[in-house]
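Contributing new records

If you add data, match the layout below exactly. Sequence lines come first and carry their own label; structure lines follow with theirs. Keep one chain per record. Anything else will be rejected by the validation script.
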Amino acid sequence: MGGKKFAVLLCADDSEYVKKKYGGYFGVFVGMLAEEEETWDMYRVASGQFPEDDEIEEYDGFVITGSCNDAHGNDLWICKLLNLLKTLDSMKKKVLGICFGHQILGRSLGGKTGRATSGWDIGVTNVHFSSSKLFGTLKLPAFMPIIECHRDEVWELPAKAEVIAWSNKTGVEMFRYGDHMMGIQGHPEYTKDILLHLIERLLQRNLIEESFADEVKSDIEVHEPDTEAWKKLCTSFLKGRL
């Protein structure tokens, strides 16, 4: 008792594979972010499950996950999520957005999102930081490799948001808004195993070509994401240690 309390806002349905191997995407995020004596809850926001107003106050921070949906869409649950994020901003709650979560967070603050001009970005990508002094005592290298799987991106952010990382394919790989909100376009929580499974699902749905999938798989074999460094960065931000 007395430990911090966090919530994962789940924006995707769990695949049977991820459910069986990792306990769903909630299990993947808890595996990366949870520490002793913390409480972690989940709200399946894509299915309409949201925290009540009086529950929001109990949480020290929130994580918004990836999704198959478009952050520029206007589904009922997406509009409801936008309203929740505006509330969290006004309360200065810590919010970490990942992939779709990064995009919807940017949109909630007044930014614009849409299809990436360079198409799908799948694989292990080098993300370059705008400064090595972004996070106080946390020393960052000039760049860190991360797993990516997206075809949408943040096009534009409000003036108060600071773009803190970019890649060769994506101009807004990371941003911060004040000290309480941060978006990451890549997937620090993913393993190569999860990514390879996702590639197969995208192939089955004819969302990517087989030649592109083969190219990505070859690239994944020879490149590694810096999982530990991303874990440290995410936990440090979410828990106010930066």
